[in-house]
Amino acid sequence: PIDAIGKQVWLGDSTKVEIAGVIKDFNFESMSVPIRPLVLQNNPDDFRYLNISYSAVTDSENLKKDIEAAWRGIAPKLPISYTLTDDYLYRTYSRKQRVASFGFYALIALVIASLGLLGMVTYTVEVRTQEVGVRKILGASVSRIIGLLSKEFVVLLGIAAFIGLPVGYWLGLQFINSYAHQIDIGFGTLTLGLFSLLLVGVFAVGTQTWKVATSNPVEALRSE
Question: CA 65, 45, 81 angle in degrees (round to 5)?
């Protein structure tokens, strides 16, 4: 970069300019586009925006009033429009709406799956209530009954994890690959997803199985 300063280059076919300085690379386009070469040229005739630097402790409302007052003194008949650079950059590069939509759909899918699992557990427990009562009378412990009722659902959760983790990993890679600058989906991310799945499953299964396992067996057998 130091060697480039002072050298002359052609812009197009007719404009020859001298390099006054070299700055660090930065994103001036969408984050899905790699950083490409950029020439910044000082041409006041093409200026369309006024950038104002202010202290972080400055009150934003008073600042806006001062800017509007100054603008009215310069061009009273022209409307003024302004925005914070941080807000502009965030709207341009964050893809907030897209990410928020993914999060909303994921939440809906999780709720539906949890309700479905809870419904299956509730039905199974209801059907096997008399069986649990007989086992308790014959001396089965609470932990053994919970394990008996939860075993098939643990298997289902394992199958779901076996299918869902690779698919989620692949979809995550597809989303990340749409950006030029990427992060890695590591083992920790997959472990967190698996832990969340098991946590929801254990809560849905455990609450129902614990309830029937600790109930009075006489109440379960009374209808027989």
Answer: 25
Percentage above 90 pLDDT, the chain: 7
Nearest Cα to Cα of residue 102 among 27, 28, 178: 178
Which among 8, 57, 224 is positioned nearest to 134, based on CA atoms?
Answer: 224
* The model's pTM: 0.53
Burial track 84-111 (b if 16+ CB lie within 10 A, e otherwise): eeeeeeeeeeebeeeeeeeeeeeeeeee
Query: CA quadruple 160, 162, 165, 166: dihedral positive or negative?
Result: negative
Residues 127, 159, 150, 200, CA torsion sign = negative
pLDDT in tens, 128-160: 777 777 777 777 787 887 777 778 788 888 888
Q: Which amino acid is at 117?
A: L
pLDDT of residue 204: 77
